[in-house]
Structures are given as C-alpha cells and as structure tokens.
TrEMBL record:
GO terms for cellular component: ATP-binding cassette (ABC) transporter complex. Residues 322-342 are annotated as: Disordered. It is a multi-pass membrane protein. Residues 333-342 have a biased composition (Basic and acidic residues). Pfam families: BPD_transp_1. The lineage of its organism: Bacteria, Bacillati, Actinomycetota, Actinomycetes, Micrococcales. One of its GO terms (molecular function) is transmembrane transporter activity. InterPro entries: AA_ABC_transptr_permease_3TM, ArtM/GltK/GlnP/TcyL/YhdX-like, MetI-like. This is ABC transmembrane type-1 domain-containing protein. It comes from the Bacteria.
Length: 342
C-alpha cells in the first residue's frame, strides 16, 4: 500500500473535533383550510349583520343615537355611574380585606361572623338587596342614639341622613365586599407560609408583615379578578333603579326613551358609553397586571460555552492510582467511556 502524502489528490481525514456547519432548516407552514373557511364564513356573517343593522332596521334610528349620544342628561348619568362605581369599589375593597383577614383569624367567633356575612350577601341576589336598602327609610324611620332601654338622646330621620344615592352606594358596596373578601383571601393563601415566618423572625409586627410582605406578593393574584369586579360593578350600577335611584346612565336613557318613544336608540346610546368606560378600565387593568407580574416567569439566559466541550481540558490532570497487595501500582481504565482498557 502506498502512503498518503500531502500532495496526493486523495481525501484528507477530518479532525475529530471539527463540526460541519448545519444547514438551515426550511420549515414549511402547515395549511389549515378548515380554519380559513371558518374565518371567511365569520367575516361574511359579520358583514351581513352590520349591513342589515345599518340599512334594513329603521328601529335602530341612528339619527336619534347621534342626537342623544352627547346629551347633557346622558353625560350627567355617565358621571353618576362613575361615582357609584368608584365609591362602591373603594368601600368594597377596604371591607373585603377586613372580612378576608377575619375569615383567616384563629378566633372562631371572628371567623364565624365573617362566614355569616359571606353567606348572606353572596347567597341573595344583588337586586333583592338593593330593593331592601331602598326600603330602609320605611323600615327604620329614625336612627336613635342613646343608652339602651332608655329615652333616646339624639333622634335623626333616616330620610334626612341617607338619600337614595348613599343607599345605592351602601347596597352595591356591601354586596361587592363579599366577593372581594374571597378574592383577597385567595391571594393571601397563595403566598407561601414561609414568608410570614421569615417576617416574624425579622421582628416585624402583624401590620408591617401584612402591608410590606404578604399583600405586595398577593397583589399578583388579587389584581386580575379585582379588575374584573370593577368592570362588573360598572354594569351592575344599572340595577340601582331598585333603590330607587334613577340619575345613573341607564336611568337617564330610560327616562328619555319614555318621552321620545325610542327605547332602542337610547339603549344603544347607553351601551356605547358603557363600552367606552369599560374599554378604558380594561386598559388600566392590563397595565396594573403587568406591573405586579414583574419578575414572574422570567428565566435567566442560559450561558453558552465559549469553546467546544471536547476542547476543554483540566490543567495538571492525573489519573488516580491504587497500590495492590503484590506491591504493584494499579491504574484504572480511563481511555474510553464506561471504563475498560485501551
């Protein structure tokens, strides 16, 4: 056999550590004709519905919609709706946190009171509760302050103290607080128990532990459902006619429709304003969720080696040896994977 020389035209054996550059993968996108057909059908149905709504249904009366969309009474009703939503949610969140803490209390009496509150307000419809709150001035004509079983020192008329707007806020807030309590309780239970123990070990009191350790971590769980409850509260304000309070957005649109005999256009006007405010609240909810979800699910980038693993060697590497009973030195096999001599 003739030896291979550098000048010969024969192939040269590649170096074991060399790697061929992989070819780019040519991915072929899967086709889904069923999805395409379904999407086209949906677009056609939506187009037909919009065309029918715009041209074939005079009952919508879009001229009336444009006329009353920015009417002063409608704008005033939207402002009252916002006030009902904000005031009710503030009270509900504060009361919900208190009820949630009571629900988790080791004191059985405190926990039982919280459970009864949740059972009562979650077990009855909000409309029924609002009707009841509207009848409070009839049930309790006066509010008497003084020593029990003696003559009242101060007597205040309930109608003078609580107007229908205040009663609507109280009714909405007490009902919502029951749901907020369960949301807050779920958020508190989602925080690892070790966080509480670590805070106690650092010498923090209950208030600082709750406000600086537990609640900030629980907000990641509390914020999403709370945002949903705010949006739901905005729409629930349309039920305050049961109090009765009729200056909200739906109440004003209903009053106008009773005069113009155009109920459908006024319902569209109210729906446009509800959708507008709801869209703004959804944007705010998105940014709040993103703020409190910082660092959740993030993973550090995997550090890639700067050289091939096969090229890394240990400086001063020596294989261990073992003396035998005959006085010889035994060198264990090390030249191939899994053991065994060369």
């Amino acid at each position: 056999m003739s030896d291979m020389r550098s000048g010969d035209a024969g192939p040269t054996a590649p170096h074991p550590s060399a790697h061929a550059e992989p070819e780019a993968i040519q991915a072929i996108k899967l086709r889904h004709p069923g999805r395409t057909v379904f999407a086209v059908v949906l677009i056609l149905l939506a187009g037909l519905f919009l065309y029918d709504t715009a041209f074939n249904r005079p009952v919508y009366n879009w001229g009336i919609v444009g006329q009353y969309l920015f009417d002063t009474r409608i704008l005033t009703g939207a402002w009252y709706t916002l006030q009902l939503t904000v005031y009710s949610m503030i009270i509900a969140i504060v009361l919900g946190i208190a009820v949630a803490v009571m629900r988790l209390s080791p004191n059985p009496v405190v926990a039982a009171v919280a459970w009864v509150y949740l059972w009562l307000f979650r077990g009855t419809p909000v409309y029924v509760q609002l009707v009841f709150w509207g009848m409070i001035p009839t049930i309790y004509k006066t509010i008497d302050l003084g020593i029990p079983f003696t003559e009242a020192l101060v007597s205040i008329s309930t109608k003078d103290l609580l107007n229908y707007f205040t009663l609507a806020v109280i009714g909405l807030a007490l009902n919502e607080a029951a749901y907020m309590a369960e949301i807050v309780r779920a958020g508190l239970l989602a925080v690892d128990k070790g966080q509480d123990e670590a805070a106690i070990a650092l010498g923090l009191g209950w208030w600082h532990t709750m406000s600086r350790v537990i609640l900030p971590q629980a907000m990641r769980v509390i914020i999403p459902p709370t945002g949903n409850e705010v949006i739901s509260m905005l729409k629930t304000t349309s039920l305050v006619a049961a109090v009765p309070f009729t200056l909200d957005l739906y109440g004003r649109s209903r009053d106008i429709s009773a005069v113009t005999y155009q109920p459908v256009p006024m319902l569209i006007v109210a729906s446009i304003w509800y959708l507008t405010v709801t869209s703004i609240l959804m944007v705010g909810q998105y940014y709040l969720e993103r703020h409190y979800a910082k660092g959740i699910g993030d993973r550090p980038d995997v550090q890639k080696p700067t050289v091939e693993t096969a090229a890394v060697t240990v400086v001063g590497e020596r294989h261990p040896t073992y003396p035998s009973t005959a006085g010889e030195t035994i060198v264990p096999p090390h030249e191939r994977p899994g053991g065994g001599g060369a």
